[in-house]
Amino acid sequence: MSHNHHMNSSMLPTMHPPEHHHSTEAPGHSHVSDMMMMAMTFHFSYENVPLLFSGLTINTPGEMAGAFVAVFFLAMFYEGLKIARECLLRKSQVSIRYNSMPVPGPNGTILMETHKTVGQQMLSFPHLLQTVLHIIQVVVSYFLMLIFMTYNGYLCIAVAAGAGMGYFFFSWKKAVVVDITEHCH
């Protein structure tokens, strides 16, 4: 059953000719006129939905279901990677320094607050591993951002639900320290 008559024209990619074409190419050989303009409103379509790469286009409900699952797990992986990097960082701390500083207390008193400062060696395997994992984390985060920017409702839900589920599964191990003097959260 086709539901194309229910689709808004803003939901479909449209072709737009270039407004200003200053090229030495012969007429009819312009690469600019082949560009597709993306919908800039949220939509729930499963036909002609580009996904990250030019050759990767979703055209069927099955492809959309597969993309949903893949994006969901990619978002879960991203959250797990963030927590794994924090755990690895804690395990690889080599130098520890304690600093005390005065902090205003109740009734005009002064309290001493101690902070632990830790570090790693730059030329070490843990730091190299953290660097590689950071690169992977950045690439995955940009992939998730670009997927969300397709404005496809199914894919946006997959990103949000996967991130939420990843946080639920991986973040409970994370030790949370709340600094009451910190006002920028």
What is the rounded Rg? 25 Å
Class inferred from helices and paired strands: alpha+beta
Coarse morphology = elongated
Side by side, the strands of the main sheet go 1-2
For the structure shown, list the relevant keywords.
single chain; about 180 residues; alpha+beta; two-stranded antiparallel sheet; 3 helices; elongated
Could you explain the architecture of this structure?
This protein has 185 residues and is α+β, with helices and mostly antiparallel strands. Helix content is 39%, strand content 18%. It is built from three helices and six strands; from the N terminus they run ββββαββαα. The protein has helices at residues 61-91, 125-148, 153-170; strands at 14-15, 36-37, 49-51, 53-58, 95-104, 110-119. A two-stranded antiparallel sheet has the order 1-2. Strands 3-4 form a two-stranded antiparallel ribbon. Strand 3 (49-51) and strand 4 (53-58) form a beta hairpin. The chain is elongated.
